[in-house]
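User: quick one - fold this with zinc ion bound?
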Amino acid sequence: MTMISNIEIECGVCGKESMQRALLSTNSFGTPDLDFRPPGMSRNTMNTWIFECPHCGYVASRLDEKPEIDSDFIKTDKYINCDGFEFEKELAERFFKGYLIANEKDNTRESFFNLLHCAWACDDGEDIENARKIRKLSLGYLDEMIQMGGEEKDNFVLMKADLLRRSGEFDRVVEEYTDIILGDELLDKIITFQIIKARQKDDACYTVEDVNNDMHLSRN
Ligand SMILES: [Zn+2]
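Assistant: Sure. Structure tokens for the protein plus zinc ion:
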């Protein structure tokens, strides 16, 4: 079961304390979405992934640690006003600020994941236009991660197909993915599924189970 507890955390920027919700344990039943968003209960724990100091506005997954950037950055208009984005959900705003800090310290991976989580928070708030814009913004960081290669590359390639389709870039999914074979049955089925949905101009959210239940997958 999911257990959340309130804990007092001292801010790494202003030194003041605040009560924050910390995740003690969680579990998940079901299969993830095609952008790796976890199912079930653990998807409802997003508000424990990132914290905001109510005194100075600093946002971090470890609020007690000092930021690696000049802390004056959190006083800039860009940070305070989320670079012009007006989000429906406070949680989306928090992840976006996490992204701005990550981007400021040139951390591609952290920038990408904060944007992805921001998009999920937008989805939950039915903030459709911002969800689309944030997914598009995340693609540049994801491309960098794909170029870097490494063990997770195939996962990133899969994620990119979903981000493209869900931000309405249907033609790019078809163009960029039709010839991609990763050599793993499930992963290649997921790509085929993405191509079919992109051809149908379908930008909805699907899970791995939806792919497994689709018996008629063919790229032709
Ligand atoms: Zn603070």
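One thing worth noting: The longest strand covers residues 17-25.
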